[in-house]
Amino acid sequence: MRNTLRLIAVALLLSLPFAVSAQPANPYELPDPLRMEDGRIVRTKRQWIKERRPELMEMLRSQMFGREPGQAPDLHFTVLEESPDAFGGLATRKQVKVSFDKDENYYLILLMYVPNDRKGPVPAFLGANFKGNHATTTDPAVLMPTPEKLATYAPGYVVEDRNTNGHRWEYEYILKHGYAVATFCYNDVDPDFHDGFHNGVHQLMDGDKPRNGESWATISAWAWGLSRCLDFLEAQKEIDARKVAVIGHSRLGKTSLWAGATDQRFALVISNDSGCSGAAIARRKFGETLDVINKNFPHWFCTNYTAYNGREEKMPWDQHELIAMIAPRPVYVASASEDSWADPVGEYFSLVGAASVYNLFGYEGITDRTVPEIEHPVVVGRMGHHIRRGEHNVRLYDWQQYVSFADRFLK
Ligand code: GTR
């Protein structure tokens, strides 16, 4: 009998529309994004743009992501391959070496598809990938990473087979909806392991300059790489560079948020399962916490960020203010129901916490304090949200929501 009752209780718990929301998180109070550090309340767009936004950007730079450098010393682009017959003639494929220095010691390889059925420049999605361009697709013409590049990746790095991450990049779906799409392997910009910042673009941009607590780290390097790709897209006549959505999953979702904050040319920003130090509210201390992320990934953030390990409530900001940095541009935050490590509830509440900034610009925002049910996407004003059923990943369902959200603003 006792066991039966226990089973019923478990079954009831599992059948809750969104079980993770029932789990306890740390009680918290969020800083008001519209309150200046000196206590004044921001009442106008102008005050936000001239005073509060710069104040928050300074906080995020000096305390979290580090100070990103300016332009690369010699940015230039070399088309390595181009063909109009990708996916049976649906798209033109371009593979481009985006070089950061004159000698081309530092570069990334950008893979871009542009729909052939177009009348004039098209909007685009841009995002970094984890496993190499070749792993995002079945397209046999996509270049494999060169041995020269592979030598810079983490020791023991294993080259993936083609298409192992294809489900995360629904190229044909995106192209058929009239968007171009471009991606590069994040390791090209800065290999994802801690080597004291000797490799990747840090070496190029900093040389032997001594590092300090505010020095930029790896997530800001990836975001910087996204901006260099946007420089390339700006030079393409087939792309409408005023309509580029930046997208990223997980650590690359943290990156897309930071890219959207630092580079206001990005017209729309998408965070897919970005979790801790992305969209999730830090003060909830639910799932991954600062202590854990800074220990496991000491190269992602600037070292000042470790001062908040276990002391999230002492942060002078919280992650809703990273979302607010995107205002008034459209922002989409997505979660997955089984991804409690990324705290889907906390990801949702950063939208709610940023809504007042969107209101200041005359746009509605997401303000409902009830977390939406699984696969009930919500779009209010310039904010979008959904929780996909399933695991930490990017799936067709996610892309369907992103494309329909982008259709409202980029078409
Ligand atoms: C995890 C990390 C998360 C997230 C994820 C990913 O190990 O704890 O913050 O970034 O990796 O990028 O897949």
Radius of gyration: 21 Å
Low-confidence stretches: 1-22
Distance between the termini: 60 Å
Coarse shape: globular
Number of helices: 12
User: Strand percentage, roughly?
Assistant: 15-25%
Helix content: 25-40%
What's the order of the H and E elements? HHEEEEHHEHHHEHEHHEHEEH
SSE-based structural type: alpha/beta
Largest β-sheet summary: 10 strands, mixed
Strand order of the largest sheet: 1-2-3-5-4-6-7-8-10-9
What's the domain count? Answer: 2
Named once each, the bound ligands are:
beta-D-galactopyranuronic acid
Mean pLDDT: 94
Would you count the extended β strands for me?
A: 10
Walk me through what this model shows.
- It is globular and about 55 Å long.
- Strands 1-2-3-5-4-6-7-8-10-9 form a 10-stranded mixed beta sheet, with helices on both faces.
- The longest helix is centred in the N-terminal third of the chain and has 21 residues, at 45-65.
- The protein folds into 2 domains: 4-65 and 274-392, no CATH class; 76-242, no CATH class.
- It has 411 residues and is of the alpha/beta class.
- Helix 7 packs across helix 8.
- Residues 1-22 have low confidence and may be disordered.
- Strand 1 (76-86) and strand 2 form a beta hairpin.
- It has 12 helices and 10 strands.
- The chain binds beta-D-galactopyranuronic acid (GTR).
- Beta-D-galactopyranuronic acid is lined by residues 250-251, 275-276, 288, 293.
